[in-house]
Specification:
The protein is built from eleven helices and 15 strands. By secondary structure, the chain is α+β, with helices and mostly antiparallel strands. Helix 3 runs antiparallel to helix 4. The N and C termini lie far apart (114 Å). The protein binds zinc ion (2 copies).
Length: 415
């Protein structure tokens, strides 16, 4: 007999697991969610899955019931503790066993939240989206960084739970009987009446009125509030990317909140105060996956070689640029340093990087030191007189094309 029960329990187990989804997951919450977050999740989801809004959709209707069940447990501190420790089974036992839930009827719960006679009001839909712009330095797009930001928005009054009533009491409107609409008769001419359906002016179309207005929101049911969010800037995220926070726009008891959309932009480069933040990379320009940098060389460096530059990249690592003696760099030439560009966004197997394009600019001295000029002149004179100057050979000038010939001859005459 004992063995039989154990077997039965084993067989039941997978069914139970299938039937009951995790309450936190169901409400889209973290395990450390606070009361406000739980209420908010319920408010949003119960509207979304309300049977009135999803006729003939069994999945939605079941979800509506499950959401209410999850809310009932998580909002009760004691039940939540039991659930955290023992799961669904523990909750059932605590509620009196036998699966007869101790929670609310899901419709009663919905009514207690939204008042107005408890009906799902017609025309209820998603509210408008909200967009905010956030600028972060290029460095954060390179290394990835978590940011926090605050948004001031319309929030459901916490004091009255969006009922607008001090005592939580909403009375069915005496004028419209909870319909929100009234029929008005207007006499157009003697004996001729026109009937018009109009929004009830007593309750403003809500179908219910409040005797004692909530002191916090003055009966408006909503307040202005600042809410803080976290924004994870991921490695290699494109400039201008939009990050959506579902149902985080202005809240209202009358609609499901729209989405909060963060438009993430790259900040104009500026010199940071701290010495450690002073990286050359701050002034890199980005185009998609590639970075661009302009490096300035002196005439001597460009022509004679034998120089090094240590570029400090966005995360502080150093990219060395260098030429040996005798290696010439042409002005305006571009060196491509592979793998030193931006990381690829959401690369599965480790980050992949674009390239860094270094463009060389050569600066000639405005005026040469007298002694230096004399020596240079001497060297050139010597070469000119003894060997003649072959521009092709000695200065690295490219082969002239046919139409450049005349210019070239003139140029040679000038030297
Ligand atoms: Zn009314
Ligand atoms: Zn209030």
């Amino acid at each position: 007999m004992l063995l039989f029960s154990a077997l039965a329990a084993l067989c039941l187990l997978p069914l139970l697991v299938l039937a009951a989804e995790d309450y936190y997951k169901l409400l889209g919450l973290d395990r450390d969610a606070d009361e406000r977050q739980i209420k908010k999740a319920y408010r949003t989801l119960s509207k979304k899955f309300h049977p009135d809004k999803n006729p003939n959709d069994d999945t939605s209707q079941q979800k509506f019931v499950d959401i209410a069940e999850a809310y009932d447990v998580l909002i009760d501190a004691e039940m939540r503790k039991v659930y955290n420790q023992y799961g669904h089974e523990g909750v059932k036992q605590k509620q009196g066993g036998g699966g007869q839930g101790g929670g609310h009827n899901p419709f009663d719960l919905f009514n207690s939240f939204f008042g107005g006679g408890g009906r799902f009001q017609q025309g209820q839909r998603k509210g408008p989206n909200m967009e905010v712009r956030i600028s972060v330095p290029l460095r954060d797009f390179y290394t990835g960084k978590d940011h926090e930001f605050k948004v001031e928005k319309q929030a459901i009054c916490e004091k009255c739970e969006g009922s607008g009533s001090e005592d939580g009491q909403r009375d069915t409107c005496h004028k419209c009987n909870g319909q929100g609409m009234v029929i008005q008769k207007q006499m157009l001419a003697p004996g001729i009446f026109q009937q018009m359906q109009m929004q009830c002016d007593v309750c403003g179309g809500k179908g219910s009125t409040v005797k004692h207005k909530c002191k916090t929101c003055g009966g408006a049911r909503v307040v202005r509030a600042e809410e803080q969010y976290e924004l994870a800037v991921e490695k290699g995220m494109p400039n201008g990317v939009r990050v959506t926070y579902e149902n985080e726009a202005d809240e209202s008891p009358d609609y499901v909140a729209g989405d909060l959309v963060v438009h993430l932009l790259q900040e104009e480069p500026k010199l940071a105060k701290g010495e450690k933040d002073r990286t050359d990379g701050t002034f890199f320009r980005r185009k998609d996956q590639h970075l661009f940098w302009r490096e300035v060389l002196s005439l001597r460096e460009a022509w004679m070689g034998d120089w090094t530059r240590n570029l400090t990249h966005l995360d502080g690592h150093v990219v060395q640029l260098a030429r040996k003696r005798g290696q010439v760099v042409q002005p305006g030439s571009v060196e491509v340093v592979e793998g030193e560009g931006m990381p690829t966004w959401r690369q599965e197997d480790g980050p992949e990087f674009g390239n860094l394009h270094v463009e060389y600019t050569v600066v000639l001295p405005d005026q040469m030191d007298g002694g230096l000029e004399k020596e240079f002149w001497g060297v050139w004179e010597k070469w000119r007189k003894k060997k003649g100057v072959d521009l092709q050979k000695d200065s690295g000038r490219p082969e002239p094309k046919h139409d450049e010939l005349v210019v070239d001859v003139l140029y040679q005459l000038l030297i």
